[in-house]
Amino acid sequence: MVCYHCGLKVPPDAPIRDENREFCCAGCLGAWRLIQGLGLEDYYLKREISATGVRPEERDPQALEPFDDPEYQSRLVAEVDGGREVCLLLDGIHCAACVWLNEQMLRRLPGVSEVWINFATHRARVRWNPQQTRLSEIIGQVRAIGYRAEPYDPSLGEQGRSRRDRDLLARLGVAGFGAANVMFIAVALYAGYFQGMDLEAKNFFHWVSLILATPVILYSGGLFVRGAWQGLRLGRLTMDLPIALGAWVTYVYSVVVTLRGSGEVYFDSVSMFLFVLLTGRFLESVARGKAAGAMERLLNLVPRHALVLRDGEPVSVPVREVRVGERVLVKPGERVPVDGVIESGMTSVDEAMLTGEGLPVSRGAGERLVGGTQNLDGSVVLLVERVGEETALARILRLVETAQAERPAIQGVADRVAGRFVGIVLVLAAVTLGYWLWRDPSRALENSVAVLIITCPCALGLGAPAAMVVAMGAAARMGILLKNGETVERLERVTRVVMDKTGVLTTGLPRVERLVPVPGVEERALLTLAARVEQHSEHPVGRAIVREYLARGWGEPGAAENARNVPGLGMEAWVDGARVRVGRGAFALEGAAPELSCPADADKACSWSACVRDGVLQGWIGLGDALKPRAREVVTALRELGLPVMVLSGDRQAVVEQVGRDTGVDRVVSDLLPEGKERIIAELRASGAVTAMVGDGVNDAPALARADVALVVANATDLAVASADVILLNRELDAVVKVFLLARRTLQIIRQNYRFSLFYNLLAIPLAMAGWVSPIVAAISMPLSSLVVVGNALRLRKP
Hints:
Layout lengths: L15 E3 L2 E3 L2 H12 L3 H12 L17 H7 E4 L2 E9 L4 H12 L4 E7 L4 E6 L6 H10 L3 E4 L2 H42 L3 H22 L1 H12 L6 H21 L6 H33 L5 E6 L2 E6 L8 E4 L8 E6 L2 E4 L1 H4 L5 E3 L4 E2 L4 E2 L4 E7 L5 H14 L3 H31 L1 H14 L3 H20 L2 E3 L2 H9 L2 E5 H5 E12 L5 H12 L5 H12 L9 E6 L3 E6 L2 E6 L1 H5 L17 E7 L2 E12 L3 H10 L4 E4 L4 H11 L3 E3 L4 H13 L4 E5 L5 H6 L2 E5 L12 E3 L5 H36 L5 H19 L6
Parallel strand pairs: 18-25, 18-27, 25-26, 27-28, 28-29
Antiparallel strand pairs: 1-2, 3-4, 4-6, 4-7, 5-6, 8-9, 8-10, 10-16, 11-14, 11-16, 12-13, 12-15, 17-29, 19-24, 20-21, 21-22, 22-23, 23-24
Helix pairs in contact: 6-7, 6-10, 7-9, 7-10, 8-9, 9-10, 9-14, 10-12, 10-15, 10-26, 12-15, 13-14, 13-15, 14-25, 14-26, 15-25, 15-26, 16-25, 18-19, 25-26
């Protein structure tokens, strides 16, 4: 059982019971009886539920057992190496100290191996061993310290944020109403201070101000008191502590003055700075929502329902109830609900949300579709392969969440400073109070409260996370997936870019580059004859020949009979009663001397296939790997960024050198096996170069693993490439330049945020200690500093 008042575990050997409720200590029992004696039980419960969304009895482990239901976990929990992983939505996180507190509490649980908490999105990703710890225990551990935690459901994510914003607005409304009315009374008191006022009238205004300010301090200010108490209860100083302390010291002092009937009150200051602080917190929440919303909006593209074929009839069911192996009907204009393979039908699909490519792609039987993409013009039946947390889109989001939550090294110093900041603030406030009690007691309270309020480590704590969240969202929109925050730092330090040729600089697909017919044979006749044979081939060379024929608009190539494939050599078929062979020269010519020698001696950049009819050579077809569009422009752009470009390839020297000349790279190395590529990367690093390797994730794995930063050009189904730091879902080469520009801008923004935060605190603290800043000005300045940091990070959204 857990304590009904504070939520901590009740000692099993000595529980304290009262009216079927259990408490952990006499202090909690006494506090609860005091609440009952004052008739505030209903108010207390409503405040508990409003602040955390959890009733005290819901902290009981039995109330959390539904989270362990396998059916429930199948939708929201992912199976990973070494256990399970869940994304939790945390309510009540509002400073870096809250993040630290939750991380430490979760890491105390047996079996919990990794915890990442993203301050900017209020989401935690927890990895644990289900044999040692249950999900209900993880959630209960968070709820026990006063925060609300539940598995993050993308369909409910917006609702959770709306609930938090509504709670903030309610507190803000009470604070605004109280502050406005107390300020009206303060105007009269200020006038009376200068022009004189009857003592009875003055005391009357004090009592009215007390009545108006009390709901503000109890309800609106309760948010800060709760955060401060949660931290103190676990031995952690949070940023809410100086705020709560400053507010309550000022309020209690003003109450004492009101009861005595002499002196000046500061109810206006209390009400106004709580109103300003809540306004800043609300605006900060809205700004964080905008910064973190890109990934959430991406998941929301997946429809809520799918048409599942059952007994041959389409039945609309919630997507979360679709199972692997079922068949789903996707109509024109609908979004694909799950990952699967097309069983029947053909269509065009808009995959821009996933790859960033604007042009639709054709998809037919046997090809895969990814959930969230847009079906444009044909109905298809999809065999479901992945659902829930196993879909490609969910895995992308999981990688992004992990990348956003991981702290880059540049944030380490800031976190250490922020962690000690509150203690320093309390010491400085005490010094200020002591000094002004000696110098001018009438100003001591106001100046010490100003020190408590104006100092803020939140801007320091938000400097890197806010920029990282926005950068991840901007990268995703460009079809770029960054696997962790440290990658951004390493990308900025890169001094040399190494690229594979095939699939990176070139399309990776053969293309007809030259047609060399023998005298008396036209190019059209040569290509038509070869296409009639190769239309029966599945080999990339055969497909390239057919594509070239169709691209010239000559109609269908015509029929061929008895076609057969000779593995590794070529194709043979009968065309109009003649035997035709297309493939390697020795195979096609059957050892006979050709009338026209192979052009390979003159053009080594192409691979050559012979076309022979009844033993008579018809001509040679040269095939090459075409450069990707804008390959030369991308290489030029990288060199302008100060990044020399080198090409490593296993292809022939002549081919690689030709690609080097066409693109303008600095150096090429050919005829390399995978271990040769890895060796060259190691040599570059040994010479002091910070190396980024761009590969296709197939035969480049050793070199990618050896490089400082590994960039993989991949489809959405290739996300399991273990060596990749950056996955380029958009196969356009421009993404390589964009990721370097984004990394440099992100680090620039982070450094700007840190410089601003340090400058703000170094300037604000001495001014407040010197008595040049009032509590109201301090209350305006503190949240404004955080808003400046978040606003600066949001500039990364613009390309």
